Each structure stands twice: as C-alpha cells, then as structure tokens.
Amino acid sequence: MNHILVIDDDPATRYLIKSILEDAGYAVLLAPGGEEGLTMFRHHQIPLVITDILMPGTDGLAVIRELLAFAPQTRVIALSGGGMILTAEISLQIARKMGAFRTMAKPFTRKDLLQLVAEVLQIPLPAQEPAPLAADSPS
To answer: DSSP secondary-structure letter at 134?
Structure first.
C-alpha cells in the first residue's frame, strides 16, 4: 500500500484529499502545517508528500527544501490556490524550481488528483546518496 502525507493548513482541503486518496486505496497521514508535516515525515519516511505552498509558519516551499535535503528520493506534489501576493501559477513555478516532482493548482478534480498521484508514484528515480542531516554536517 502506498503511503501519502498531506500537508495543508485548510482542514476542508486536507480531509477532501484524504477522502479521495483513501477511497482509491492509499494510506494517508495528515498534517495541518509545514512544521507538523516535517516532524511526521521524519518519523515515517513517506514516499509521497502533497503540500500546499501558501501556509502560515513553515510554508510549502520550506517544506520542499527540508524534505529534499533530508530525503532526496522523496516525491513531492505542490498545490496552490494562490494568495494575496503570489498567484498560484507563480508559487507553483517556484515549487518546481525547488524540486517538486509535479504541481497542481487548486481547485482540482478528483480525477486530476488521482491521475497525478498515480503518475508520480510510477516515476523511476535516479539512485542518489541521501544528503547529510544538518546535525551531521561538519561545523
């Protein structure tokens, strides 16, 4: 069974994604923000993370940066509905440049989400050495 971590500050979006993915047979963990999501990821090493970009506190761009520094093989789907300063298109372009495998604008359809998740989980990844943890780096 494929496990997926969903990080989004909007409870309605989190539970909608969870419902769609669980109905399709995925195991889903939820986090209400970036910091909680990173903590859950460190404990569970989940192969796919779906994160919102615009969140208070630790935003999705920081999540992507931390996830890929800690576990470069992690697949990330970035979501955005845009905000007051950044449009969805701009925030998703930035997410792609930071290493998100795929991006999707909100709102999205059930079909689009499931198709994207299936596509991302089938992408073969090149073998890479994990990046050292910050605590392991020489001072």
So the answer is: G
Q: State the DSSP string of 12-64.
A: HHHHHHHHHHHHTT-EEEEESSHHHHHHHHHHH--SEEEEESS-SSS-HHHHH
* pTM value > 0.90: no
Q: Which amino acid belongs to residue 65?
A: R
Nearest to 50 by CA among 112, 89, 1, 101: 101
Task: Pick one of 3.30.1390.20, 3.40.50.300, 3.40.50.1860, 3.40.50.2300 as the CATH number of 3-121.
Answer: 3.40.50.2300
Q: Which residues contact 41 (CB under 8 A, 6 or more apart)?
A: 5, 49, 67, 70, 71, 74
* pLDDT per residue as tens digits for the range 73-130: 999 999 987 655 566 778 788 888 988 999 998 889 999 999 999 999 986 655 554 4
Question: How far, in Å, CA of 17 to CA of 32, rounded?
Answer: 13
